[in-house]
Specification:
CATH architecture of the largest domain: 3-Layer(aba) Sandwich
Mean pLDDT: 90
GO molecular function, one term: DNA binding
Helix content: 40-55%
Family: Belongs to the LysR transcriptional regulatory family.
Pfam families: HTH_1, LysR_substrate
Order of helices and strands: HHHEEHEHEHEEEHEHEEH
Low-confidence stretches: none
Number of strands: 10
Distance between the termini: 55 Å
CATH superfamily of the largest domain: Periplasmic binding protein-like II
Structural class: alpha/beta
Keywords: Activator, DNA-binding, Transcription, Transcription regulation
Protein name: LysR family transcriptional regulator
Number of domains: 3
CATH topology of the largest domain: D-Maltodextrin-Binding Protein, domain 2
CATH class of the largest domain: Alpha Beta
Strand order of the largest sheet: 4-3-5-10-6-9
Length: about 290
């Protein structure tokens, strides 16, 4: 019989690529992860890992087993959700992961509604870049999270997760002198930290306009980005949620480019009463925000 906990470790190794990364994410020691995976190999009766020095790769049998593990883990989540549905009141914790501007505008009103309707529910919010959210969901450090995609940076399929649309925003070009995106090729640029979706979106949007941006400053807070634009330090791309307060002199030009935010949660948990309550509250907050905007 295959051990479910060991299957989860194998699934994490398929996503995180190294035993050290799996150990760090799931609060194991690397040696403990290695021992559990070796035990899983004995249970499976076939080699699952190919070891070369300190690195490991998954065998074809292991990759097939990971596909089965995704199904098994989703079924267990569904069973847990059905059992939770029998309770008369929501208790326990709800862990939400969201990017900063959504925490201010969408998550905060949702928290007010959840606290009012489910006073025994413990609400925990983690601010993080959407690129880090899928791994946190699979590691079970989050229950629900907000993911992003841009026209030029589509959302990659995430095994083991379900997603649904939440809201969509227009992207604006923030400048001191109005002009089209293609005219900003000689300007210095302000973009997010390398590795973030915002940084990748800026680079790809500029490439689509025919030039490579010369990025002078890196900032992940859009208030900081707009302040730098206002100080004459460059131009930037900013989504709707980031333009709640615009410094004097800064011009915003709406582009035919959009950012879409989706809710994500582990497959099988969507009907769990706690996750379902979070989904409803976040959709209501997004609807109210769109009506107010």
């Amino acid at each position: 019989m295959l051990d479910v906990r060991r299957l989860r470790l194998l699934r994490e190794l398929a996503h995180r690529k190294t035993i050290a990364a799996v150990a760090d994410a799931l609060t194991y020691t690397p040696s403990a992860v290695s021992q559990q995976l070796t035990a899983l190999e004995r249970e499976a009766g076939v080699p699952l890992l190919e070891r070369t020095g300190r690195s490991v790769t998954l065998t074809p049998a292991a990759l097939r087993l990971v596909e089965h593990a995704e199904t098994i883990l989703a079924v267990l989540e569904t069973a847990t959700a059905e059992l939770a549905s029998a309770r008369s009141e929501l208790t326990g914790s709800l862990r939400i992961g969201a990017f900063p501007t959504a925490v201010h505008t969408i998550v905060s009103p949702a928290l007010v509604a959840l606290s009012r309707d489910h006073p025994l529910l413990e609400l925990l919010v983690t601010e993080l870049d959407p690129a880090a959210a899928p791994a946190a969901l699979r590691a079970e450090t989050l229950d629900i999270a907000l993911l992003q995609e841009y026209d030029y940076v589509p959302l990659a399929p995430e095994p083991g997760l379900d997603t649904e649309p939440l809201f969509e925003e227009v992207i604006h070009l923030a400048t001191l002198e109005p002009g089209p995106l293609a005219a900003q090729s000689d300007c210095p640029w302000i973009a997010g930290t390398p590795g973030t979706l915002c940084h990748e979106m800026t680079v790809r949007a500029c490439l689509a306009a025919g030039f490579t941006p010369r990025i002078r400053h890196h900032a992940d807070d859009f208030g900081t980005v707009l302040a730098l634009v206002g100080a004459g330090q460059g131009v930037a791309l900013v989504p709707d949620l980031g333009v709640l307060s615009v410094p004097a002199g800064v011009t915003l030009t709406a582009l035919p480019t959009h950012r879409r935010t989706r809710l994500a949660y582990r497959r099988g948990t969507g009907a769990h009463p706690i996750v379902a309550a979070a989904r409803a509250a976040l959709h209501a907050a997004a609807t109210d925000r769109a009506a107010g905007a």
